[in-house]
Design a protein that fits this description.
The complex is a heterotrimer of chains A (about 450), B (about 450) and C (about 475).
Chain A: H1 7-24, H2 32-42, H3 54-75, H4 89-95, H5 99-122, H6 124-136, H7 140-153, H8 166-196, H9 210-228, H10 245-264, H11 270-280, H12 286-306, H13 318-327, H14 333-367, H15 370-409, H16 419-430, H17 433-439
Helix pairs in contact in A: 1-3, 1-14, 2-13, 3-5, 3-12, 3-13, 3-14, 4-5, 5-6, 5-10, 5-12, 5-14, 8-15, 8-16, 9-15, 10-11, 10-12, 11-12
Chain B: H1 2-24, H2 33-36, E1 46-53, E2 58-62, E3 65-73, E4 81-86, H3 89-95, E5 107-116, E6 121-125, E7 131-135, E8 155-168, E9 171-178, E10 181-188, H4 190-194, H5 197-207, E11 213-223, E12 227-232, E13 252-253, E14 266-279, E15 282-288, E16 295-300, H6 302-309, E17 319-328, E18 331-341, E19 347-348, H7 350-355, E20 361-375, E21 379-385, E22 391-396, H8 398-404, E23 414-424, E24 427-431, E25 438-440
Parallel strand pairs in B: 4-6, 10-12, 13-14, 16-18, 19-20, 22-24
Antiparallel strand pairs in B: 1-3, 1-5, 2-3, 3-4, 5-6, 5-7, 8-9, 8-11, 9-10, 11-12, 14-15, 14-17, 15-16, 17-18, 20-21, 20-23, 21-22, 23-24, 23-25
Chain C: H1 3-14, H2 18-25, H3 33-52, E1 57-59, E2 88-102, E3 105-112, E4 115-122, H4 123-133, H5 137-142, E5 146-155, E6 161-165, H6 172-188, E7 192-196, E8 199-201, E9 205-214, E10 219-228, E11 246-250, E12 255-256, E13 263-265, E14 272-278, E15 281-286, H7 297-313, H8 319-338, H9 365-391, H10 401-404, H11 413-464
Parallel strand pairs in C: 1-7, 4-6, 12-15
Antiparallel strand pairs in C: 2-3, 2-5, 3-4, 5-6, 7-14, 8-9, 9-10, 9-13, 10-11, 14-15
Helix pairs in contact in C: 1-3, 1-8, 1-9, 3-8, 7-8, 9-11
Classes of the chains: A mainly alpha (about 450), B alpha+beta (about 450), C alpha+beta (about 475).
Chain lengths: ~450, ~450, ~475
């Protein structure tokens, strides 16, 4: 029997993709989809017969990304506790000199998540997934709206304590929630403009949301670093973690549930899924949280792409899957099982790569000024946006940065910036796109 | 900190205003379809396309929602781009009538969002106001007797008697017998959703009656590139006599239990499709009142039964309307009819089917053929068994065998069967009367 | 139960109503309100009631700097008064005169633009002061360096005020306030609520303190503890020195201690505690604004009514189904909370007393939460499966047990499927009953009280994790 691709090719291409992922995923604000787009835009790498390799290249990149992005969220996302009333656990660890441990916990979660993903998809998933898909697919948008509503409903007003009268306290608390609404709808409007107007040149319409996402998630941390004026304490880079088996199980379970939900339902992202997963598995504690983040992100990104490999279930999830699926969609069970094996291989490689990268970054950060690194990355991101999308892209970047900044200032969830993706979809499925686009002046 | 918040709000509003002004000065471009096809970097791009609609609009019901499909071609590429609209957009478009519905022969500009898969490209309509109908075939009423040599997408009219009406997946297809031959006409199913139920019902019932004289206009379309047909665009373009406009046929609407009082009159009743019986060349369809207390039999011929109440499609207890003439206190002769609320065919196991009373329309899925034989007259007798362990006879009359056009399924093949229950010479059987009633799966 | 569990229950209720499902398929999103309704009881409590609840007495032992949101903040010497005694601030200025300095003790005066005050540093506080100054007090005075010194105002034996160098407030302040609240509750006969702010310092650490109710001696004892992280882990070496570790205040009236342990205040945002006279003693009501009317069956009926009216006025065709679904979703929340410890008053105004909860699985609340989530998922799958054909989603039911398992007749297959799907939850609930019996036998009433307190704290703590 002839196969389109041999195991050697799978491994080679997969490792190449992993290499790309490991090399670039530490940059904050840069999504793995952007990486893939850059590759496909800049080089005709997958033409003339090597289309069959594209899914494996992407799989390698995505798995590597799931691990390596922890570097960005741990080391390059510093904040002052005065700026934010609640620090992320990874930031707390960093400020206590234990950033490396945060990365290790994250990687443990990611590894467990991926092993579970592979085990499930190649066994029970074969039978269960098509049933779940057929039952729930008419209700995707219901699920999306429900999750967004839950995010708003469950937000914890952090400043409500500080008022002197009941009404003042109420205002202070709700100010944060209103800030969240502002962020959500402002980002939604930006998403509508980016999608439905001619601001972004047609040839780069695949990158129409890139300026927005870099503006929401990449640049504000630069601003935070500048305002923060904090110096990093020396980091302990020994390979030590402090956690308990129960926290590992709990964290991994909540991350797997969350990542699974995010992978299965369109538009729902890993962060949103992790919120739900955490509630379902009653996750508590910084260590469990970090493990769950790792598991959620790994299962989300990798799971979403891995659905593409499933021969009997036609699910295409996420920008990477759409990109790669357009080149070539795996069709046979052999390709599916190759993919499963590759995930395990690249997970191991990425784990090692991430651990060593973490040590390197930790050492680097205490030697080089934080502000300098921020500035370099900021210049890179702005240049990237300009290269891809021109002046209009920079305009969108500026507007998006303002929104990301507002999220920071109002102490509200940065995830609300996903409104850029969510609002256009919700309008579409409820049939209100027309009216809104008219109000926005682009109809 | 308060200052920062104010600053943040100001920056956000300022950013949005800036983007607004830039956006209104950047109109969305029109893109040649060739640039979209197989271009993965175009995935999810929202663009305008401009071209010719090359097929009649078609509505399917998928997963409980409507899906509208049209095909568009421009000069940049020989292929046609499929463009879809799902509910709620599909219903919104159809509710606005044909004025907003891209129709075959129209030149349109459409705002669509592109999807590029490995081997084909398609697009989704984004909103109603993103549909611009730039030009549409129209003109004076030019009558043709035949469509031979008539250019595609031209607007023509035809008149004559309706012949051979049949329901196809695209809508209602029938011929008009003109002085020089026959002209095929399609009423696309999209129109069923664009007009009121009463008007659609009236028009469709009339056109379903062979012999009705009709006068209509529409756009010429070559099905599969070779068979020309007139596709009706507006139901108002259909007339039923040379001079008068559409007049709904007169059937007095009554309750089933009043049928005995209307002998020899034309009535219209609504009820539940309950059973099919056959005797001496005529089918008797039992229709019961919604409380199942009263029943009448409707006499129909085979073609009428298959056309209205195909057991593979229309399930037991579907709500139907029957227009016909009362021939006895318990019988109505069928003239026209409509399925008001279709129920899925009753899906049972063989064991359950054996328990059903005579006449019950039902369906059995994934049964295995135990034996099959051809008997005198060209009828088929097939015994099937399924997971319930029971076996039943499936009887396929020769008329259905002719429609099927396949060989009898050999033992071991897996089949789906839809028909009605009967007992012949003491043996339980299922009678398959329509082509869709026997599907061989493997 | 976590918030999502309640919300999810509301979504599961929607799946029982095919007309609502049909609407969802077609992009009409009204039914999502059932999930919102299911979340409402906690939403009302945590986003409204909590802030509007009257705070009769406010105990803020270490006021925060409005810009940095941390303690201590600066106080000008001229502003110090009796009301500020024992509260943690920092003063900033120049050291005027050093009166005494030796190992473990320093006494000097500090002047800022509004006045001058005597400053005393003792034991470890003296050591920390030297570290902060980077030199001895003498040297700092001579160098005329501007210094910041954290501490609290105290009154010496001679009746004169002085600044006590410290990194935590004196617990006496808190003890006094709590005693005041108890006394006022007794005298006024109605509930008196005290708001005790927590103490947040640099590095996202919190100063832990404990309020102990010594009912036998009618005294409130407050212990000032170490710094802890948000996870509750203490930071080594941050325990306050002996002399300012304990504060004791006596109440005029008796009170009853219900919760067996001290009330701990650290990272969890400072609690509101209500004191109310019950008979001849004052009782503590922890977080009094939680689980009131909002957690009742009456409220669920009102919720359904309100939603139904709004939907009707807005022209939603299935407003009646929606009203029922919302009422049931809200009710699901109330009932799920009844599975725990606190319980609620279920039918106000007809009933007045709180119905205690069923107390299932006291030792594994996380498992109960997960099992309830599973139940809701199972119900969704069950409903979506049996309604798919009539909604036109699939031509026939996807899971037909009668075709998979020989023994199951077709008319019972749905029930069989339901049984299989909810079996894990039923098993967990049954195990929960057994655990409850064992727990009660071992821990009895004090254990129940502790579990109730833990449940409240968990619910409020959840709001802390609002990432």
């Amino acid at each position: 029997m002839e196969y389109f691709i041999s195991p050697i090719d799978v491994i080679l291409w997969g490792l190449m993709g992993a290499g790309l992922g490991l090399a670039l995923s530490w940059i904050p604000g840069l999504h793995v989809a952007n990486l893939m787009i850059l590759v496909l835009y800049a080089t005709p790498l997958f033409t003339g017969g090597s289309e069959y390799a594209a899914p494996y290249f992407a799989l390698g990149a995505v798995v590597a990304f799931s691990f390596m992005s922890s570097i960005a969220s741990t080391y390059l996302s510093v904040s002052d506790e005065s700026m934010m009333l609640m620090l992320f656990p990874s930031q707390r660890y960093l400020l206590a000199g234990r950033g490396h441990r945060a990365v290790l916990l994250y990687c443990i979660g990611a590894l467990i998540g991926l092993l579970f993903l592979v085990a499930f998809m190649t066994t029970a998933g074969v039978v269960v997934m098509p049933i779940i898909y057929n039952l729930f697919s008419p209700y995707y948008w219901f699920a999306l709206l429900a999750v967004v509503l839950f995010m708003f409903l469950s937000e914890w007003p952090k400043e409500g304590d500080l008022g002197r009268s009941g009404l003042e306290r109420l205002w202070l608390a709700w100010r944060q929630i209103l800030g969240g609404l502002l962020v959500f709808f402002a980002s939604g409007v930006l998403g509508l403009y980016a999608t439905y107007s001619g601001l972004i040149k047609l040839e780069v319409s695949f990158a129409r949301l890139t300026p927005l996402f870099i503006g929401f998630f990449g640049l504000p941390w630069v601003l935070r670093n500048i305002i923060s004026r904090r110096t990093l304490p020396p980091q302990d880079t020994r390979h030590v973690v402090e956690t308990a088996p129960s926290a590992v199980v709990n964290g991994a379970a909540s991350g797997i549930i969350g990542g699974g939900i995010a992978a299965f339902f369109p538009v729902i992202t890993g962060g949103m899924g992790a919120l739900i997963g955490g509630h379902m598995a009653s996750s508590r504690g910084d260590d469990a949280f970090l493990i769950s983040q790792g598991a959620a992100r790994a299962v989300y990104y990798t799971g979403a792409l891995f659905f593409l490999f499933h021969p009997t279930m036609r699910i295409t999830r996420g920008a990477v899957a759409w990109l790669v699926g357009g080149l070539y969609t795996p069709k046979t069970w052999i390709e599916f099982y190759y993919g499963a094996a590759l995930i395990v291989l690249v997970a191991g490689v990425s784990l090692l790569g991430t651990i060593y990268m973490s040590k390197a970054v930790a050492k680097l950060l205490t030697r080089v000024s934080y502000a300098k690194i921020s500035a370099v990355v900021a210049v890179f991101l702005v240049a990237l946006v300009y290269y891809l999308t021109g002046l209009n892209g920079l305009l969108l970047l500026a507007a998006a940065t303002a929104v990301g900044f507002a999220a920071m200032v109002f102490n509200t969830r940065l995830s609300y910036c996903l409104g850029a993706l969510i609002l256009p979809v919700l309008l579409n499925v409820t049939g209100y796109t027309d009216e809104v686009l008219t109000v926005l002046g682009i109809r | 900190m308060g200052l920062l918040r104010v600053l943040a709000v100001v920056l956000v509003v300022g950013g949005l205003v800036g983007v607004y002004y830039a956006a209104i000065k950047s109109p969305m471009p029109v893109v040649p379809i060739r640039d979209l096809e197989n271009n993965i970097l175009m995935n999810y791009a929202t663009v305008y396309i401009e071209g010719l609609v090359t097929s009649p609009p078609r509505v399917d019901v998928l997963g409980g929602k409507l899906r509208l499909t049209i095909y568009v071609r421009d000069n940049s590429s020989p292929t046609e781009l499929p463009v879809y609209a799902y509910d709620p957009l599909a219903s919104e478009i159809l509710k606005q009538g044909v004025s907003r519905l891209p129709f075959v022969g129209d030149r349109v500009r459409l705002l669509v969002q592109v999807r590029v898969r490995e081997d084909f490209t398609y697009a989704y309509l984004q909103d109603v106001r993103g549909i611009y109908i730039l030009s549409r075939p129209s003109g004076e009423r030019v009558y043709v007797d035949t469509l031979e040599g008539v250019a595609e997408y031209s607007y023509v009219c035809a008149r004559g008697a309706v012949r051979n009406p049949r329901n196809v997946s695209a809508g209602l297809l029938f011929d008009i017998a003109t002085t020089r031959g026959r002209v095929t006409v399609l009423v696309p199913n999209a129109l069923y959703y664009a007009y009121s139920r009463e008007l659609v019902g009236a028009v469709v019932s009339s056109l379903s009656l062979p012999g009705t004289y009709t006068d209509l206009c529409g756009v010429v379309y070559y099905y599969r590139g070779v068979s020309p047909e007139i596709v009706v665009r507006e139901l108002e373009e259909i007339r039923f006599s040379p001079v008068q406009p559409v007049r709904p046929p007169v059937f007095t609407v009554i309750d089933i239990r009043d049928v005995p009082n209307y002998v020899n009159q034309n009535v219209s009743i609504t009820g539940l499709f309950y059973a099919i019986y056959y005797s001496a060349g005529t089918y008797y369809v039992e229709v019961r009142s919604t409380d199942e207390a009263f029943a009448v039999n409707v006499t129909m011929d085979r073609a009428q039964v298959i056309s209205l109440l195909n057991p593979a499609v229309v399930g037991w207890r579907s709500l139907i309307r029957i227009n016909g003439t009362v021939t006895s206190p318990t019988t109505i002769r069928y003239i026209a009819g409509e399925v008001l609320e279709r129920r899925e065919p009753l899906t049972l196991t063989v064991a359950e089917a054996l328990q059903q009373p005579v006449g019950r329309p039902l369906r059995i899925l994934n049964a295995t053929v135990v034996s099959s034989s051809v008997v005198s007259g060209g009828n088929w007798r097939i015994y099937i068994r399924d997971a319930s362990g029971a076996t039943i006879l499936v009887f396929v009359p020769a008329s259905t065998v002719r429609d099927l056009g396949i060989n009898p399924p050999p033992p071991g093949s897996v089949v789906d069967v839809a028909g009605y229950r009967d007992v012949y010479r003491g043996e339980d059987e299922i009678i398959v009367i329509s082509r869709e009633g026997l599907v061989v799966r493997g | 139960m976590r918030g999502w569990t309640h919300f999810f229950s509301g979504l599961a209720v929607v799946t029982f109503f095919p007309p609502l499902l049909a609407d969802l398929i077609n992009g009409v999103m009204w039914p999502v309100l059932a999930g919102v309704a299911a979340y409402m009881p906690d939403f009302v409590d945590f986003k409204f009631r909590r802030f509007l609840w009257r705070q009769d007495i406010v105990a803020d032992p270490a006021p925060r700097d409005p810009r940095t949101k941390l303690s201590p903040r600066r106080v000008k010497i001229g502003r110090l008064s009796e009301a500020e005694r024992w509260r943690l601030y920092y003063i900033e200025g120049y050291i005027e005169r050093v009166l005494e300095e030796r190992e473990g003790f320093a006494k000097f005066t500090l002047r800022d633009e509004t006045g001058e005050i005597l400053v005393v540093a003792r034991d470890r506080d003296y050591t920390k002061l030297r570290e902060a100054l980077g030199s001895s007090v003498e040297d700092a005075a001579r160098a005329r360096r501007r210094v910041s010194i954290s501490g609290f105002l105290d009154i010496g034996e001679d009746g004169k005020p002085y600044w006590n160098v410290a990194d935590a407030p004196h617990p006496q302040y808190i003890a006094n306030k709590v005693a005041e609240a108890i006394d006022r509750a007794y005298e006024s006969g109605r509930m008196v609520t005290i708001k005790i702010h927590n103490i947040r310092v640099v590095g996202d650490f919190y100063r832990r303190f404990l309020v102990h109710y010594d009912q036998d001696n009618k005294r409130i004892v407050v212990y000032m503890g170490p710094l802890v992280s948000t996870g509750g882990l203490p930071l080594e070496g941050t325990e306050p020195p002996e002399y300012r570790r304990v504060g004791v205040a006596y109440t005029k009236y008796p009170f009853r201690k219900v919760y067996p342990r001290p009330t701990v205040i650290d990272a969890f945002s400072g609690p509101e505690i209500g004191y109310v006279k019950s008979g001849e003693v004052v009782e503590e009501v922890f977080i009094p604004w939680h689980r009131g009317f909002s957690h009742s069956i009456t409220a669920s009926l009102i919720a359904g009514l309100v939603v139904g009216l709004v939907a009707l006025l807005a022209g939603y065709a299935n407003y009646l189904y929606l009203a029922v679904a919302c009422a049931l979703g809200y009710l699901a929340h109330v009932l799920e909370d009844q599975l725990g410890f606190m319980g609620s008053n279920l039918l106000p105004p007809l009933t007045k007393k709180r119905v205690p909860g069923l107390m299932l699985f006291p030792r594994r609340p996380g498992l109960m939460n997960f099992a309830t989530n599973w139940l809701m998922l199972a119900l969704m799958i069950w409903n979506l499966n049996r309604f798919s054909p009539q909604l036109g989603v699939t031509p026939y039911k996807l899971v037909r047990l009668s075709t998979i398992i020989q023994g199951i007749p077709a008319h019972l297959e749905d029930y069989a499927l339901l049984g299989i799907l909810i079996a894990p939850t039923v098993l967990v609930y049954l195990a929960g009953i057994i655990d409850r019996q064992l727990f009660l036998r071992e821990y009895r009433a004090p254990g129940v009280e502790e579990a109730k307190r833990k449940e409240t704290v968990e619910e409020v703590l959840e709001e802390v994790g609002g990432y």
